[in-house]
Amino acid sequence: MTDPEHVENVIQSLRALQENSLSIIRLSEPTSATPTSQRTSDVSASAFENPSPASLEADLNHYKELFSKLRFSYLEQVTKEKFLRAIVSDPPLIVENSENTELESQLADIKAVLKAQKERVAEMVAELDARGRDLSRHYETITLQTTLLSSLPPQIEDLNQTLVLLRKQNQSVDIETTNPSLALPLPATLELLEERQASLEEVDAQLKSLKQVLPRQTRALENEERELQMLELERERAVGLAREAAERKQESGGADDLEIRGMWLRGVERGLKGMLEVEA
Fold it and tell me: How far apart are CA 171 and CA 163, in angstroms?
């Protein structure tokens, strides 16, 4: 476990670093010690209080336009000054066509060099822009991680208190008398777990086989229930016939039609035997 004092020292160091907040250099601030006048451009000054990528891009475009106008004005004034000096000089400065051609060739070379330097500067600006965005993302990530890290010590302290409380509760309960399985060491616990899993797999196999036998047993039970219903109907029919026979016997004075017919047939048999003198 990490030493709490070491964690606290790390957090204090990160907080000390965060006190020196990172910010983009403001264009309104002077680059030298000489005091300058207040800003006179039409760009909103509130953007420099809380700079953002959009406001900085707007200011960059604004200053590009200003520098372009300043460059045009400077070239215009320099050209006028040279022209006036050439006119009023004594003797006047006369420029030949060959000199203009030579100057144009030198100007073309200078423009090529300037173009190459501009391309190099554009590449450097793009690289600096990408690096700046990357650093900004890293700074935001570090700030978020620092915030999360500062919230960890109270959580760790709460967890430690909960752990101490649970240990006290565990010591106050006699585990060996309540459930000896909870007091087993790790190897015995793993062995018991394997035995329980094996018995569970055996029960699952038996359950699967019983599920396969269940439809056949269900059909046999349905057949037996139908046979039982038929036997119940026959029993009720036989009981009804017996009850009717008993009622008829009572109504005929103690003998039913079958008994009377049997007595008559026996009497006829005796009479015939007497007439025919047949020994019984």
Answer: 12
